[in-house]
Amino acid sequence: MTMYDPVLLRSFVAVIEQGGFTRASQALHLTQSTVSQHLRRLEDDVGHPLVDRSGTPPTTTEAGERLLGYARRLLALGDEARAAMDGTPAQETVRLGVPEDFGGRLLTPVLADFARRRGTGLRLEVTTGLGPQLLAGYERGEYDLVLAKQRHARAVQAWREPLVWLDSRRHPCLSRASVPVAAFPEGGLYREELFGWLDAQRRRWHVAYVSPQLASLQAAVADGLGVSLLPRRAALPAHRILGARDGAPEPPRIWLALHHPAGASPATLALAERLAQHCTKLAQAASAAA
User: Fold this and answer.
1) Which CATH architecture has domain 91-157+254-290?
2) What is the pLDDT of residues 145-157, one digit of tens each?
3) What's this model's pTM, rounded to 2 decimal places?
4) In 10 A of CB 40, how many CB atoms?
């Protein structure tokens, strides 16, 4: 059994990671037709289509998704072998996506410790964003590993993220004729649930404050700029948690989910394990405090 040609694998990975044939050819310093030929030859060798070319950007097929993780590992091993023979230290890149409201002090100490322990052999690239955007980026091959908020537990591993309805303790908003709302931008998970609750109560409401940053929403609620739906861990002394007597329903179920491909690199799997340990501890602490 022969190995897949690393040159062909590199073009395949580049098409997915760069989001198209044009950018892949630029990154590889090849013509676009050469990259296309490489991909066709690899698909012939594998015996399955690897890339769905119908959309923009192109995405992996089911077979392509299976091969992508292995291709990255094979290319990384090749780079590592070359570095070892050249006497230069090998470096592996891990691209991590995390929710904006989870990527601050809750997570940065863990990431920094992991990076220090791996030393110069690891290049860690972290991006924060909204859950749907992170998951879409993961599907496009932009991340090796993702922690994202979602409405179901389908993932490598998942943990409940308890939510609470919040108002200002000193400057309540819920009693106003038109209830001001402080929310994440369009695409944020909690946004539609918040609007749905007020609609169900037949309350007039308006969006008064929008921010992609948790700290800004915390401050907006505390100072009376709007009610919001946020993680329980984000509740501050200046907030009042709303309950049944306020007409607030049971908060929706949201999950913090960990995603990575089956063929992820050793460094990616090691980081995934470290993140899973950390998320489990946070979930246990939240359960004990509830």
Assistant:
1) 3-Layer(aba) Sandwich (3.40)
2) 999 999 899 999 9
3) 0.68
4) 14
